[in-house]
Amino acid sequence: MELLKDYHVTIRYHPGKANVVADTLSRKIVSMGS
């Protein structure tokens, strides 16, 4: 939070499936090629 003190930010909680961006970014990339 110290890093953000100089910026105007709003932190919002998006529960479960409503937060698709974080869900996508947190998934492991699995290579299907051999």
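The record above closes out task 2.4. Task 2.5 opens with a second protein, given below.
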Amino acid sequence: MAGVFEVEVDGVEHDHGLGHHDEPHQIDVSKLSPEEKWRVEHARMHAKHKGHEAMHAEMVLILIVTLVVAQLVLVQWKQRHTKSYNLVTLFQMWVVPLYFTTKLHWWRFLTTWFIFSVVTAYISFRATRKPLACTTPRLVYKWFLLLYKVSYATGIVGYSVIMFTLFGINLIFRIKPEDAMDFGVSLLFYGLYYGVLGRDFAEMCADFMASTVGYYSASGMPTKHLADNICAVCGQPILVDVSEEGNY
């Protein structure tokens, strides 16, 4: 094996040996040993990426500044124009995943997304009608309560599966760790995604219905007053106790 090895790549000299030559020379790579070939590739890599350290530092700095500025802009937007902020973020969270899942052919997510979108679109349509039907508030409440419970249970199950996998309990049932982890992460994602999306849609529908029936104004003071046993939204008698779940 040669004691001195020097190669010039794209005008850049690299000395990887024990000595130094004043003039670089051409080398037949096919006649070199594996270690010397590795040195040639190493020299080429240095020549190709020369000066990239400064560029990488600039990219990191630009990324940090962009994140800070974007966060400040989002906070100010939310404080000054809450309604437009909620609508834009809701629309993005609802539509953007559709592009990536369609491109990646994730049919399971597309199926659940389609079912959720159809039902929620119908519920939102009913909630924005004027005059508001007496049965609409009950329908809105039932759907989003069901969605909340299903999302909550799905998220809990997904989180539990992830924790059981980390502790190796999946091995008792002869389930591969990667399969168990994928299943748990998927359930956790579905629970979080549809839970947050359902919450935002529920708030939007509630605002529309409140403004329609006259229990909302810019000052925040209601313009109607009803008896304690009458629903303030639909005007129908309350059949169960106020603190009892299922009050619709």
